[in-house]
Design a protein that fits this description.
Keywords: Chaperone, Hydrolase, Nucleotide-binding
Structural class: alpha/beta
Pfam families: cobW (PF02492), CobW_C (PF07683)
GO molecular function, one term: hydrolase activity
Order of helices and strands: EHEEHEHHEHHEHEHEHEEEEEH
Catalytic activity: GTP + H2O = GDP + phosphate + H(+)
CATH superfamily of the largest domain: P-loop containing nucleotide triphosphate hydrolases
Number of domains: 2
Number of helices: 10
Largest sheet: 7 strands, parallel
Family: Belongs to the SIMIBI class G3E GTPase family. ZNG1 subfamily.
Length: 328
């Protein structure tokens, strides 16, 4: 009589859970990630920023987590080749010793289609054997006009690929706008789990314990995605500026370029304050600035990143002219 053992093989590779956080520019991805890390600190984080200067990592400065930043492009095109070696390095560090993290969270750029990231995690055999994709979480701002889905195909793709859609910034939207967005989400992602975040807060267990979804692997290689047409400029502010002047300047730009200017973010300094100000804007409004705690690595140089749909000629010069003006 033959005896067969069902014991688990010692050669079985333990896979690290991976979560992808997607969502259009200004939809609250980093705020959600910040809250999530408060509940799940044993996480390695990969942040992708479209601009050449990383700003989102400043929101995570209170968390001591393994943090990698991919800048200068988005994960759906320019820097996609950087993700595979980064994930391999993280895995080798995990295998080599004390396993400093329990999961990996990838925050994609606000202009990125998440499909190429999924393609890497599911198709590359070495990674697929060592990482387990848990799901795609997409944030969407309740204050965003639903016309954005028609104007920006990236926003549609982010929602369409999501396993869970988190509606954010509901305090900034009317009940009518929320209902309109809710109806559009039902069309774009009818099978996705729907959650609402209030000031970035929601049940973290609902995000970290996503139900497993069946994903069909494509039979062909992922086609090259077309250039999405976004541009970014980065300004360095060597000297502190009064917040009132900067606020009026940014409000002026948002008002004068309502279609082209899709995202403003930065960390700036004001006179008499060591704590930098985190500045964010999008969807036609400038959000209230918040003070960040001081870090020893702060250099006192302010940085502003502006992302536009297409190139806006002379925008950097106009911004500097407005900042120098006392009459804005």
């Amino acid at each position: 009589m033959n005896n067969y053992s069902l014991a688990r093989s010692s050669n079985v590779i333990e896979r690290i859970p991976v979560f992808i956080i997607s969502g259009f520019l200004g939809s609250g991805k980093t705020t959600l990630l910040n809250r999530l890390l408060s509940h799940a600190p044993q996480s390695a984080v990969i942040i992708n920023e479209f601009g050449a200067t990383p700003i989102d990592q400043q929101l995570l400065r209170e968390h001591k987590v393994p943090l990698s930043t991919l800048v200068g492009g988005c994960l759906c095109c320019q820097v996609i080749g950087s993700l595979t070696p980064l994930l391999k390095n993280l895995r080798m560090a995990w295998d080599s010793g004390d396993r400093p993290f329990e999961r990996v969270i990838i925050e994609t750029s606000g202009v990125a289609n998440p499909e190429p990231v999924l393609d890497i995690l599911l198709r590359e055999r070495w990674l697929a054997a060592r990482y387990s994709l848990q799901g795609v979480i997409a944030t969407v701002s309740a204050s965003m006009d639903t016309d954005h889905f028609d104007y920006f195909p990236e926003a549609q793709a982010q929602i369409a690929w999501a396993d869970t859609v988190v509606m954010t910034q509901t305090d900034l939207a009317t009940a009518e706008a929320i209902a309109k967005l809710d109806a559009r989400l039902s069309v774009l992602a009818p099978a996705a789990t729907r959650l609402t975040a209030v000031q970035g807060e929601l049940d973290h267990n609902a995000l970290l314990n996503l139900p497993n979804k069946f994903r069909r692997l494509r039979n062909t290689e992922l086609p090259e995605l077309p250039d999405h047409g976004f541009s970014s400029i980065t300004l360095q502010l060597e000297h502190p500026l009064p917040w009132e002047r900067m606020q009026k300047t940014l409000e002026y730009l948002i008002a004068h370029y309502p279609k082209q200017l899709v995202r403003v973010k930065g960390m700036v300094y004001t006179p008499g304050q060591n704590q930098p100000l985190l500045v964010q804007g999008g969807a036609g409004r400038l959000y209230p600035a918040t003070r960040l705690p001081v870090r020893t690595s702060d250099d006192g140089v302010g940085r502003l990143v502006i992302i536009t749909q297409g190139e806006v000629k002379g925008l950097a010069e106009e911004l500097m002219t407005q900042l120098r003006s006392h009459n804005v």
